[in-house]
Hints:
This protein has one domain (3-282): 2-enoyl-CoA Hydratase, Chain A, domain 1 (Alpha-Beta Complex).
Amino acid sequence: MANDVEGFTEIRYEAPAVRVARIVLARPDRRNAQDMKMLYEINRALDIAMHDDEVRVVIIAADGPHFSAGHFLGDDGKIGDFGPPVLGGGGYELPGPEGHVAKEQEFYLGFCWRWRNLPKPTIVQVQGKAIAGGLMLVWPFDLIVASDDAEFSDPVVAFGTNGHEFFVHAWELGHRKAKEMLFTGEAIGAEEARTLGMVNHVVPREQLDGFTLALAEKIAQRPTIGLKLAKMSVNQSLDAQGMWSAVQSAFTLHHLGHAHNQVVHGMIVDPEGAEIIRKQAKASKPKTAG
Length: 290
Ligand code: ZN
């Protein structure tokens, strides 16, 4: 049962079951690459779900063969075009790293951390590829269900920076696997991600919707207060170990990379990065079975 609200064009907001909301990335024509409009729509849809006391669990899903190809590079949107800034702070159009940091702080790092701390349980279901910024629509959420063809990668070290802006790689994968993923740019398959503890369940592609919905309905039997407190308690366990400090410090290093590239290459990323990634993708066999 689709329930389009708010005039969304990049996503859909659905009510697939009692107490469950579902936000679907709806731009398979560009492999759900995220522009600013899509990110603001996701943020607004999450707010709708949080403010609806009938909703207890939120699913994040995606249309098409791939979950998300990352950031949409042709994005010419400006902060403020799609509603008021969420974190505030301003300075988004100032020249140099000052404006660039302010922008990425708002709709990359800021959104991810905000979504990670929303009070209701969130489940993301992933099929196909989730690349770089694509992981920023996966890792902020509480549970991850992957179809057996899912692949997770962050190849942006090739662009001369540490990784995407929500730097929780070591928390998600363990430090050794995180380094390998970043150093090589290679994808981690669904089953490997499950053995690493990054993914909760791997299911056949055709069962992804049904399995995730059943999991959401099971969770939605519980009272909101219990769910909220359990979520906060786990999050605070990570925060007590320094997660937020580590994420912020990696974000500043990310911007050291951008600033370096701007000086050396005249652009915020190393222009040879795309070629390195393209060559490697050609040379390596697909990791998926079937
Ligand atoms: Zn960046």
